[in-house]
Amino acid sequence: MIDDLSPALILIFGGALMPLLPRNGRNIVLFGAPIAALAQLCLMESGNHVLWQVFGHQLITVRIDSLSFVWALIFCVAACINSLYSQHLRQGAELGRLQDASGLIYAGAGVGAVLAGDLLTLFVYWELTAISSVFLIWASRTETAIKTGIRYLIIQVGSGVLLLAGALLMLNTTGSIAFDHIGLDSTAGKLIFIAFGIKCAFPLLHNWLQDAYPQATPTGTVVLSAFTTKLAVYALARGFAGEEILIWIGATMTAFPIFFAVIENDLRRVLAYSLNNQLGFMVVAVGIGTDMAINGAAAHAFCHILYKALLFMSMGAVLYRVGTIKASELGGLYKSMPKTTFFCIIGAMSISAFPLFSGFVSKSMILTAAAEEHLWLVWCVLLMASAGVMDHSGIKIPFFTFFAHDQGHKVEEAPANMLWAMGIAAFLCVAIGVYPQPLYALLPYPELALQYNPYTSDHVVAQLQLLFFSAMAFVVLFRTGLYPPEIRSTNLDTDWVYRKLIPAAMVPVLDYTFALVDRIEDAIDRNVELWGNWLGVQFSNGFLVRDANSSVMVLLVIAVFAVSLIWAYI
Amino acid sequence: MNEDDKRWLDHPKNVDKLVYALAIACALSVLADFVWTRHGHFDFEEITGFYAVYGFVAYCFIVLSAKQLRRLLKRDENYYD
Description:
The complex is a heterodimer. Chain A is mainly alpha-helical. Chain A has 22 helices and 3 strands. In chain A, strands 1-2 form a two-stranded antiparallel ribbon. In chain A, strand 1 (47-54) and strand 2 form a beta hairpin. In chain A, helix 10 runs parallel beside helix 12 (267-288), helix 14 packs antiparallel against helix 16 and helix 15 (358-372) crosses helix 17 (416-434). By secondary structure, chain B is mainly α. Helix content of chain B is 59%, strand content 2%. Chain B has helices at 12-35, 50-73, and one strand at 74-75. The longest helix of chain B has 24 residues, at 12-35. The radius of gyration of chain B is 20 Å and the shape is flat. Chains A and B meet through helix 11, helix 15, helix 16, helix 20 and strand 3 of A and helix 1, helix 2 and strand 1 of B.
């Protein structure tokens, strides 16, 4: 029995217990649940577990294989780090309970979804990730956050509905709901593809991410950054590996968010654009679909969760201490938050893929996979995007927060638990970069991965040239005043369509509808008046008050009866 | 900022030193191309300083075009409120 206990359920039960427990109990469960889930995942044997029969169909609620294991593993590790990062919440207000509960349930839903062996189980966990995570946004308790949360929930739940529709259609046509390669040939496949695409923030379906993540609490954004989108990458790798369209979708995803990241003032939104760009690398890899590429996607998801969490943690610490995360209001914080600065720089170097940092050992796999398939155009786009990453995450985030113009904020260093969480993530970023073999051994095709050596002189020199000269370009642009200044602003993105255009377009439609209703009401009023007057006249001295012959009345009744009979039989 | 809290980085001269260090790093990374010939998957990778030029140009392209994009997309901070 215990051998078959899903790691996901450990996290979900832990989360559900949270609101009922006293403070000490919450502390124990907060760390106990993710560690127990991690241990259970590592102890479980590969294969299918916990099979259920529902309406004659077999549900595989836990499937551990080489692809799902690496994702479930990093999700459990992320849950541990998140618990540590949010530990200070237990010292204070009631707010912590909600976030603790939703954070653990959300992590559990993510683990459950990657371990799902059939589409129905996937659907249940898919929707649970949406419903549990929205509380991390609502926990900010501002009006903006509440509205954003509702938009987020509508889009996320909508993705789940498409997934369910696709799954049922597939069940109807093929008789199977197994979650294996799906492909784009069938309508069911296309529906599921769009469902995954929404969660993966495909171009034009992406904006829920930049809308929602920056509105969550300082700890909430860190939790959010780990699960939903990487779950979608996993789902694509499982269901649509090798679909060529993903290469182009992914290449677009790596490119367009970097332009938005350059001009964005909210630094957590900059990181959300950056997250979108990183997902692009993984989607390209899934689209290429070779063993090397799938290894690259898994490795990149693994490393990305760590360094992205690290960057969000450092920005969360700044928000927690300073009270704002706008680049235009920040600067010079290295003086009061030196440790946070140090960890942020490690995150920045990891995401920029400096040699000896984690991004280097995973991203180079994806670039190699693209080159091996002779996709020169895609390869060039990815390389350009790498220079873009250097700008928005490598330079902009640390530079405008901790250096640049000193805004004179005198704050304390981040709380100890936050520093520890950042320290562990930073350690893992460097450890994977320096010694990638343990990570490579976990990948879906370990033999191939262990033959791969990212540290060839070709690779290292090429990457250093790219990064040093990108940094030099920043220096030149900044010193000549050409670099766009950080200013308070909102930049339009596709959310403009549903936040402004559609509401604005609805105004004439609604005006017309209201006017029409008014006219109908007027007409009714006029007629009532007219008929009322006529009836009044009839009641006072018209035919209704005249004496009538009883035979006429009988005739009238028969006529009415006849009409109603005919009416009934038509 | 008060004078007591001046740090090493607050002196423009020291910032210049960092820039020189970066310039040296750039120069060394290109110099390496003269020592080894890169064996890439594509022929154009073997051009001396390919990655250097690509990085510099791509970076400038991204930042400067984003600046133009701002003219089109920038709205007041409270635009949606």
